Amino acid sequence: MTFTSDQRDPALATAVGRIFRRIVPLFVIMLICNQLNRSNIGYAETYLEADVGIGATAYGFGAGLFFIAYALFELPSNVLMERFGARIWLTRIMVSWGVVSAAMAFVSSPEMFYVLRFLLGAAEAGFFPAVIFYFTRWLPDSHRGRATALFVAGSSIAAAISGPLSGPLLSLHGVLGVRGWQWLFGLEGLLSVVVGIVAYFFLDARIADAKWLSDAEKSALIRRIDAEDEAKTEERGGSRWRLLLRPELLLFCWIYFAIQLSIYANTFWLPAIVRRIDGTGDITVGLLSSLPWICAVVAMYLAGRAGDRVGDRRPLLVVALLTAAAGTWLAAVVPPWPALLFLCVAAMGFKSASPLFWSIPQRGLSPRIVAPAIALINSLGNLGGFVAPFGFGFVKEQTGTVTVGLYALAFASLLAAASVLLVRERAARTPCPPVR
């Protein structure tokens, strides 16, 4: 199906530009807060062990419990988001996870650590797929890849700033009689609550509700997105929930699971890997740990633009996963300083893989199932966030090193790259005017 009437529509171009200036940056800020709250335990690990008695295995298990809760509550959360709308539901998610994250400042035992990590996963469940679904309802396919890349870049920005931010917060140890790691959890949790409240006044549930778009811009957006939805005719028959049992969705879940293994192994254990470098302290570890994520931000944006330009993101996704595999394997066999360099290469691969991946189900799935399908892929794929930190913690406690874990990550990325070749390209390319 072609869309010649919309290809040169200036109203569509200006509408897309407004979304990129108003909504995408807000989602990036929200994801930065999200990643800070879910991963700041990586910088508190040493202090949690000293003050609360949480060892490497217990730390890895608690870090992973987040993703068990996330998987359990993801699909129900997305169904409720469809009912209540993105404005209310995303605000609820942000405020609740901020409160739970701030409560981490009061952890006094491994059991309390487990409970709060589980509650944090339950509170946050639905956030990421809600944003991805939001893009499918507000942007044409030809711009979703770049929007998703910019959004997912928020996680790398958070990782890049979390080190420089965590060091000074940890250095507040003793101020007002409060430990440094308590300042870390409390202030970063409070930030999420504030941003969640602000988001309520910026988001709209539907294009028709957006007062910041003109009537012509609203009509152009709705017309284009409805036309793209009409072009997806292959999946109209049968029950909406039966369509979720398709083997293709299970393949998507596996590929995303492998991507998440690398992302969260590095999120939770990168500071520990960097600490192998002689002479590093809290500030130095924070600064050096930010380097892979800074490299990843640039790579993700370039990959997103390239994906939107070529349409079929599968070859780019294969390249990204092979890059992740090569960088991770090399990081396992060289000394600490070169290992940091190769982890930068690996991060450019596995972080770029995420937005490239999400453009594929967004592009090919029927609008009837896209919201629950995204939630299903994200919830099952995010179990990699449980396996990676727990597995790394177990390996480190048994062997005293994370080298074996790095080998396993490299193999998973390699297998995922092969799996992408089994994914069929389903949707036709839909041109769209450039953003102005």
Automatic annotation (TrEMBL):
Pfam families: MFS_1
Cellular location(s): Cell membrane
Topological relation to the membrane, as annotated: Multi-pass membrane protein
Entries under CDD domains matching the protein: MFS_ExuT_GudP_like
Keywords, ordered alphabetically: Membrane, Transmembrane, Transmembrane helix, Transport
Gene3D superfamilies per the UniProt record, alphabetical: MFS general substrate transporter like domains
Limits of the Major facilitator superfamily (MFS) profile domain: 23-428
Keyword Transmembrane: yes
InterPro entries noted in UniProt: MFS (IPR011701), MFS_dom (IPR020846), MFS_trans_sf (IPR036259)
Transmembrane segment boundaries: 12-32, 52-73, 85-107, 113-135, 147-169, 181-203, 249-271, 283-304, 316-334, 340-358, 370-392, 404-423
Source taxon at top rank: Bacteria
Keyword presence, Protein biosynthesis: no
Protein name from the UniProt record: MFS transporter
Organism of derivation: Saccharopolyspora taberi
Lineage summary: Bacteria, Bacillati, Actinomycetota, Actinomycetes, Pseudonocardiales
